[in-house]
Amino acid sequence: MDAIILQILNGLDKGSAYALIALGLTLIFGTLGVVNFAHGALFMIGAFCAVTLSRILSASHEVLVEGKTDFLGNPLKEDVPYVYDWFGESAGAAIIDWSVPLSILFAIPVMILVGVIMERGLIKHFYKRPHADQILVTFGLAIVLQEVIKYYFGANPIPTAAPEAFKGSFDFGAMIGLDPNTIIYPYWRLIYFCFAAIVIGCVFAFLQFTTFGMVVRAGMADRETVGLLGIDIDKRFTIMFGIAAAVAGLAGVMYVPINPPNYHMGMDFLVLSFVVVVVGGMGSLGGAVLAGFLLGILESFASMREVIDLIPGINQVIIYLVAIIVLLTRPRGLMGRKGVMEE
Fold first, then answer.
1. Which of 51, 263, 56 is nearest to 144 (CA)?
2. Is residue 235 within 8 Å of residue 226, measured between CB atoms?
3. How far apart (Å, rounded) are the C-alpha atoms in residues 35 and 282?
4. Has residue 234 been placed in a domain?
5. pLDDT value, residue 339
6. Structural domain span for residue 74
């Protein structure tokens, strides 16, 4: 039982990232009909927003330490972060420690701006072009963004710590009534799952219960009719592109303490996220989220030593095998709209 619960927790952790990225991909496809292969790059940019803010908050200057000298007898100097000068040492240390959660506030406007510029500057010119053209141009854009990040941040992963309060692990097994020390799980991975659930809930609530979201959903179903009613649906879809970019960026921000960001992390998640979207159903928001968590859990169970010993390498291909089976039996995906990918 403890092994099953542990694998479910691992699957929810992986599935959270898959679901958030796939949700943004589906928002873009459902509203604009664009297959956006640059969406993984948005996940990467979000991660480096956290790295950037952490570096800004940690920027320091040298000050003399009164009454102390180095081994040569020179006045001793130490680096003091600027935030210590602005907010005091205690508050400044707390701000630096909580740089990753604070990056959410920094990443949201940055990612919305990046998304709007991407949509208005490039993608809008490919709305009526074949999906193959959309894939080529957005994949090229992803490579450009990847190389820009590599130029400014280097090729090596950049460790960025979670807040001190959420480092380490806790006894999840004891909390649910099992023997102590049977299920020890990292705090931040559970924080990431809870954060993903909140973001997903907010997106669905926004689409379901706001006038803006209702118009967007109507435009997804029948764009031409909504336009004939005098509503500027293109402007609303541009805003949705920015929101989708923000969702992917936030997924990257909070993923930083789990996996140190590097310039190719967007590509690592992109292919898997597209598989998730296809399995869930192109254009289905609920399907993207459901498939993200289901495939995350399935991949986690396939990574168990007992399974790998029985079928070597199954953990590397299980998601693709599921995708093949789903597409052969149900081309529209688990919850896809009728007619999508069935032509």
1. 263
2. no
3. 10
4. yes
5. 53
6. 2-329
- The predicted model scores a pTM of 0.87
Q: Token pair for residue 149?
A: 């990040």
**Structural domain contains residue 233:** yes
| Residue that the structure tokens 């958030």 belong to | 20
Cα gap 48→153, rounded to integer Å: 9
In the chain, the amino acid numbered 294 is L
**Which two tokens mark 98?**
């909580």
Phi-psi region of 339 (alpha: psi -120 to 50; beta: other; left: phi over 0): left
Tokens 């909390």, residue located:
175
What is the Cα–Cα distance from 198 to 58, expressed in whole angstroms? 29
| Counted domains in the chain | 1
| The predicted structure's pLDDT at residue 100 | 92
In a domain, 343, yes or no: no
Give ∠ CA 65-70-73 in degrees, rounded to 5.
105
pLDDT at 3 over 90: no
pLDDT at 205 over 60: yes
Q: Where are the beta strands (DSSP E) in 160-253?
A: 169-171, 184-186
Q: Do 302 and 248 contact (CB within 8 A), yes or no? A: no
Contacts of 179 by beta carbon, 8 Å cutoff, 6+ apart: 173
* Mean local confidence (pLDDT), 19-26: 88
Q: How far is CA 322 from CA 204, 288, 309, 325, in A?
A: 26, 14, 20, 5
| Residue 212, domain CATH | 1.10.3470
Q: What is the mean pLDDT of the chain?
A: 85
Instruction: Calculate the alpha carbon distances from 319 to 103, 139, 275, 286, 303 in Å.
Output: 31, 22, 8, 18, 12
Q: DSSP label at 107?
A: H
Tens of pLDDT, residues 29-87: 877 778 888 888 999 999 999 999 999 998 888 777 776 666 666 677 778 888 988 88
Neighbours of 145 (CB within 10 A): 20
